[in-house]
Amino acid sequence: LSSHISTQTNESRLFKQMMERKQQDLESKKHQEGTELRSELQMAMEDNRALRKRVLALEEENARLRGSLRSSQQRSKIWEEDFSQLQETHNHIVESYTEL
Protein backbone atom coordinates (compact mmCIF):
# COMPACT_ATOMS: atom_id res chain seq x y z
CA LEU A 1 0.00 0.00 0.00
CA SER A 2 2.79 2.39 0.91
CA SER A 3 4.56 1.61 -2.37
CA HIS A 4 1.35 2.18 -4.31
CA ILE A 5 0.76 5.54 -2.57
CA SER A 6 4.37 6.53 -3.20
CA THR A 7 4.04 5.62 -6.89
CA GLN A 8 0.81 7.62 -7.20
CA THR A 9 2.43 10.56 -5.39
CA ASN A 10 5.42 10.46 -7.78
CA GLU A 11 3.13 10.19 -10.78
CA SER A 12 1.03 13.05 -9.47
CA ARG A 13 4.14 15.18 -8.89
CA LEU A 14 5.49 14.35 -12.38
CA PHE A 15 2.12 15.12 -13.94
CA LYS A 16 1.97 18.42 -12.06
CA GLN A 17 5.51 19.31 -13.21
CA MET A 18 4.65 18.36 -16.79
CA MET A 19 1.52 20.54 -16.68
CA GLU A 20 3.50 23.46 -15.20
CA ARG A 21 6.09 23.13 -18.02
CA LYS A 22 3.32 23.05 -20.62
CA GLN A 23 1.78 26.15 -19.03
CA GLN A 24 5.18 27.92 -19.05
CA ASP A 25 5.74 26.88 -22.67
CA LEU A 26 2.30 28.22 -23.63
CA GLU A 27 2.93 31.49 -21.81
CA SER A 28 6.35 31.80 -23.41
CA LYS A 29 4.90 31.09 -26.86
CA LYS A 30 2.07 33.55 -26.23
CA HIS A 31 4.58 36.22 -25.15
CA GLN A 32 6.74 35.56 -28.23
CA GLU A 33 3.71 35.75 -30.57
CA GLY A 34 2.62 38.97 -28.88
CA THR A 35 6.09 40.44 -29.40
CA GLU A 36 6.05 39.38 -33.05
CA LEU A 37 2.57 40.84 -33.57
CA ARG A 38 3.61 44.14 -31.96
CA SER A 39 6.63 44.24 -34.25
CA GLU A 40 4.46 43.55 -37.32
CA LEU A 41 1.98 46.20 -36.19
CA GLN A 42 4.80 48.73 -35.75
CA MET A 43 6.11 48.00 -39.26
CA ALA A 44 2.59 48.26 -40.71
CA MET A 45 2.09 51.61 -38.98
CA GLU A 46 5.40 52.88 -40.37
CA ASP A 47 4.41 51.68 -43.85
CA ASN A 48 1.06 53.41 -43.43
CA ARG A 49 2.78 56.70 -42.46
CA ALA A 50 5.09 56.45 -45.46
CA LEU A 51 2.15 55.75 -47.77
CA ARG A 52 0.20 58.70 -46.36
CA LYS A 53 3.19 60.98 -47.01
CA ARG A 54 3.40 59.62 -50.56
CA VAL A 55 -0.34 60.20 -51.11
CA LEU A 56 0.02 63.79 -49.88
CA ALA A 57 2.98 64.36 -52.19
CA LEU A 58 1.01 62.91 -55.12
CA GLU A 59 -2.02 65.06 -54.30
CA GLU A 60 0.20 68.16 -54.23
CA GLU A 61 1.78 67.18 -57.55
CA ASN A 62 -1.70 66.55 -58.99
CA ALA A 63 -2.86 70.02 -57.88
CA ARG A 64 0.26 71.60 -59.39
CA LEU A 65 -0.25 69.76 -62.69
CA ARG A 66 -3.94 70.72 -62.80
CA GLY A 67 -2.96 74.36 -62.33
CA SER A 68 -0.35 74.03 -65.07
CA LEU A 69 -2.91 72.40 -67.36
CA ARG A 70 -5.44 75.20 -66.76
CA SER A 71 -2.75 77.77 -67.50
CA SER A 72 -1.76 75.95 -70.70
CA GLN A 73 -5.39 75.71 -71.79
CA GLN A 74 -5.84 79.44 -71.22
CA ARG A 75 -2.71 80.23 -73.24
CA SER A 76 -3.86 77.88 -75.98
CA LYS A 77 -7.22 79.64 -76.16
CA ILE A 78 -5.50 83.03 -76.43
CA TRP A 79 -3.19 81.71 -79.16
CA GLU A 80 -6.18 80.30 -81.06
CA GLU A 81 -7.91 83.68 -80.83
CA ASP A 82 -4.72 85.46 -81.96
CA PHE A 83 -4.28 83.03 -84.85
CA SER A 84 -7.91 83.49 -85.87
CA GLN A 85 -7.41 87.28 -85.90
CA LEU A 86 -4.18 86.92 -87.90
CA GLN A 87 -5.94 84.66 -90.35
CA GLU A 88 -8.75 87.21 -90.76
CA THR A 89 -6.19 89.97 -91.27
CA HIS A 90 -4.33 87.82 -93.81
CA ASN A 91 -7.56 87.07 -95.67
CA HIS A 92 -8.46 90.76 -95.66
CA ILE A 93 -5.01 91.67 -97.05
CA VAL A 94 -5.28 88.98 -99.73
CA GLU A 95 -8.74 90.25 -100.69
CA SER A 96 -7.51 93.83 -100.81
CA TYR A 97 -4.49 92.82 -102.90
CA THR A 98 -6.68 90.80 -105.24
CA GLU A 99 -8.99 93.78 -105.77
CA LEU A 100 -6.03 95.88 -106.82
Verbal overview:
Residues 20-40 are annotated as: Disordered. This protein has 100 residues and is mostly helical. The chain has one domain (1-70). It contains one helix and no strands. The protein is rod-shaped.
In short:
Helix content is 98%, strand content 0%. It is mainly alpha-helical. The chain has one domain (1-70).
Molecular shape: rod-shaped
What kind of oligomer do you see?
single chain
Characterize the biggest β-sheet: none
- Taking pLDDT < 50 over at least 5 consecutive residues as the criterion, the unreliable ranges are none
The radius of gyration over CA amounts to: 42 Å
SS field, number of helical segments: 1
Q: What share of the residues lie within helices?
A: over 70%
Strand content: under 5%
Structural class: mainly alpha
The count of domains is 1
Features:
100 residues, mainly alpha
Write the layout of secondary structure elements.
Elements: H1 2-99
Region (Disordered): 20-40
Coiled coil: 41-75
Biased composition (Basic and acidic residues): 20-39
